[in-house]
């Protein structure tokens, strides 16, 4: 009995992991005969799990949405609560649970009855989140749609907006979703450009119908998080640099986010940062604002730009009149810089 129960749970997990399985595939995964698979499917149906079967050589088994949730799992209120919680975690990009939340939500919404989908959709549509700092708004429905296409290896068609807001139509083979800080990215093979591309999910508008299915390709990197980080922090910029930070990797990682650059260990007391910027002048500001001791490894032009910036700052300090160096700030002028607007304020 315990062996049968464990096999049923394994079968249910397989059905949730992919849209459709053939009887032979399930039998091979479970180590049983196709006849046993058919009996186990019947047991799942008796327990309330809606398992659909398609006859013929091209047929297979599929976990569908039923009239009611299967018993011994979640009642209606619990299912809605879990779905809303997963949507919230996915939308906020909470470190460590964002990607798993999307996968779990994709599985849950696959079997939610229509009445519960409507309740979850209403809560999502009429809830206004309040975030601290800038937030790239991502529709959880888009996330779950992309996750399902990655899982089922189906082609995706969508409209994409570049950083200047110009639209384009794309057809890709989606591979994985990657979450970094408060943004989501899709790593996919672009069929028109015949190469791997990374897309910001908040700029994607799916344009169904999707498909057909495809054979997954070898991914562009083993560590996709590092691949995306390098793409958005380094490869996307005209000016790139390699800087040795004179602090341990752990200390640098606490200050430098994946969107600022990629870090590699360099002994116990240092690490290497690879980063990018729009120009050498912006790169100077970028590395200085990190607040860490460093040395430039490449390019040599960055060292020259830092020298120019140092000399400019030195001249600016030397130009200060002696009588102004110790002068008090006038009331109302504290903290203002030359040319800054006066009288501006922010309302709470």
Structural features, described:
The protein is an alpha+beta fold and 348 residues long. The chain folds into three domains: 62 residues, Winged helix-like DNA-binding domain superfamily/Winged helix DNA-binding domain (Arc Repressor Mutant, subunit A, Orthogonal Bundle), CATH 1.10.10; 137 residues, no CATH class; 85 residues, Alpha-Beta Plaits, CATH 3.30.70. The chain is built from twelve helices and eleven strands. Strand 5 and strand 6 form a beta hairpin. Helix 4 crosses helix 6 and helix 5 packs across helix 7.
Give the helix proportion (percent range). Answer: 40-55%
Number of strands: 11
| Stretches with pLDDT under 50, minimum 5 residues | 332-348
The rounded distance between the terminal residues' Cα atoms is: 63 Å
Shape: elongated
How would you sum up the major sheet?
A: 5 strands, antiparallel
Beta-strand share of residues:
15-25%
Number of domains: 3
Give the helix tally: 12
Major sheet: arrangement of strands: 6-5-4-3-7
Give me the secondary-structure category: alpha+beta
Mean pLDDT, to the nearest integer, reads 79
Q: What's the helix-strand series?
A: HHHEEHHHHEEEEEHEHEEHEHH
Radius of gyration: 27 Å
Tag the structure with descriptive keywords:
42% helix, Alpha-Beta Plaits, single chain, 4-stranded antiparallel beta sheet, 348 residues, Arc Repressor Mutant, subunit A, 12 helices, alpha+beta, 5-stranded antiparallel beta sheet, 3 domains
Task: Chart the SSEs and their pairings.
Layout: H1 2-17, H2 23-30, H3 34-46, E1 51-53, E2 61-63, H4 76-92, H5 98-111, H6 114-125, H7 140-152, E3 156-161, E4 167-180, E5 183-190, E6 195-200, E7 204-206, H8 224-235, E8 239-245, H9 249-255, E9 262-265, E10 271-277, H10 280-289, E11 294-298, H11 300-318, H12 322-325
Antiparallel strand pairs: 1-2, 3-4, 3-7, 4-5, 5-6, 8-10, 8-11, 9-10
Helix pairs in contact: 1-3, 2-3, 4-5, 4-6, 5-7, 10-11
